[in-house]
Amino acid sequence: MKKAVFGVDVGGTSVKLGYFTIEGVLLDKWEIPTRTENGGVNVLPDIAASVKAKMEEKGLSADDVEGVGLGVPGPVKDDGTVIKCVNLGWGVFNAADELSSLLGVKVKVGNDANIAALGEMWMGGGKGHSSIVTITLGTGVGGGIILNGKMLSGVNGAGGEIGHMTLDTEETAVCNCGKCGCLEQYASATGIVRLAKKALDGSDQASSLRNVENLTAKDVFDAAKQGDELAGEQVEELGKKLGLACANIACVVDPELFVIGGGVSRAGQIILDVTEKYFRKYAFHACRETGFALAVLGNDAGIYGGARSVLG
Amino acid sequence: MKKAVFGVDVGGTSVKLGYFTIEGVLLDKWEIPTRTENGGVNVLPDIAASVKAKMEEKGLSADDVEGVGLGVPGPVKDDGTVIKCVNLGWGVFNAADELSSLLGVKVKVGNDANIAALGEMWMGGGKGHSSIVTITLGTGVGGGIILNGKMLSGVNGAGGEIGHMTLDTEETAVCNCGKCGCLEQYASATGIVRLAKKALDGSDQASSLRNVENLTAKDVFDAAKQGDELAGEQVEELGKKLGLACANIACVVDPELFVIGGGVSRAGQIILDVTEKYFRKYAFHACRETGFALAVLGNDAGIYGGARSVLG
Predict the structure, then answer these.
(1) What is the C-alpha to C-alpha distance for residues A252 and A233, in angstroms, rounded to an integer?
(2) A285: chain B residues, CB-CB within 8 Å
(3) Per-residue pLDDT tens digits for A190-233
(4) The whole model's pTM is what?
(5) In this complex, which of A155, A248, A250 lies closest to B254 when CB atoms are compared?
(6) What dihedral do alpha carbons B31, B37, B41, B46 form, nearest 10°?
(7) What ipTM does the predicted assembly reach?
(8) CA distances from A221 to A121, A225, B2 (A)
């Protein structure tokens, strides 16, 4: 009788691990450093050793463990083949097979954004749904798509790479990806600050943001909530771009729910309100009532999703 | 031993039917009228009678038949429940169950655009692939998405409704759907003519199109192929919008191949060339090499896809 499942979120600096019941209760979580030297050869053995130590600590045999699910920062094929994880030093190999042979239990591997989306579906903002799109607004903009409970990886591992949807073909500023006009340029924390500075520099309009040193996205939202007009315009612009992107996603995959997460989403309801407002304007009528929710698992989404991915 | 499968494409005027081997060889095809009166109560019984007559003609028993697959003009849930087919007079009911009980064989039902996409994947422009997006450029613009061999229907049946992706938030002309700036307004036959007329009316630029009565999309492509500058600009504009839409689809579902069909696609290679040109510009680098092909099954895509849908 299987009773435990492990979820692992592999980052470039540290690996987060979680020990769950198969019903999704997080019983323990911990971190280990990511040793990326030598092409990252130690990453999977370190994870195996850490999981084995935890199994021993908890008195679990391999028979008690349903498996281990891993999210990694790069494209992954459905069979667990990692295409390339620059941040880990990894090339192309089957990470699921390798970790499985080290541990003697079933292993699933997926892209970290898709795995996090699965976590939010299971026990987070998307709980109770089976087809959701998550949008993570952080330093960049990431996305994950779950349809009927399955991750949409895409042929090149680019499924859900919605941060690089082109929204403005007239844009001249260049995105980190090399293109111009990507969602990430407007809806990431970096993008929000960039646009606010541009607005401040481009006019004499009074704004409390003029007194802020080291302007952050949080400052923009805080000022908007307090009625600052220039900051409010920036929030509208964010909503316009994010609502447009969601409308365009909806006419492709038509999910039940959008789940907005990442550091920027800590601004709360104001993000949902302004995004929904423009989504309703730009969305095809059949999917105009699609729901919006905030992500709730934060940095734990990856370990939840890893665990969920093993449960099939 | 199953040896036959039927594919059925239900239109508002006529129903197309095809009798196939399970390997996908079309052995016979025919049409019957669609009787839409009385809420379309006769449509399924007429199809059942026609399939039964063909089975008798060919000496097939129910044991010889793998099943019947149906494409209908409206949203359909995965279990065969039709949400509404205005053109057939249908409300909400399970069309798969009803036709199955009339025929005594397995029945699958899907949206006609998605079913046609499945046909193109099986024996058409997408043969040999399992994840494709079809875009049908006709009076309107339709789409169908197949991922790992399965149709993407969407929660509201709006999966692949890419004709209503918003590409220009500044557009003031209104789409049939009530929004402004939809792909359909630029890439449908109607849209191409609308934009060409606008360009002709808006300038004194010399163009062979000025001598054409009842301008069609074909006239625009023919003139562009013969070097007409204004017509060439219209084709570029089409490529820009279609390439942008494909790039935005690619960062959501990341398919292997785009298959372009519908009446407008009869212009041939020029459509692929101009669409790919802008796709490569707007697409995220990981999916920039996604392929493009022309649809090849024409009006038979629906019966091929219907047959394929039964084969699972």
Answers:
(1) 29
(2) 177-178
(3) 999 999 999 999 999 999 999 999 999 999 999 999 999 999 99
(4) 0.94
(5) A155
(6) -20
(7) 0.93
(8) 27, 6, 63
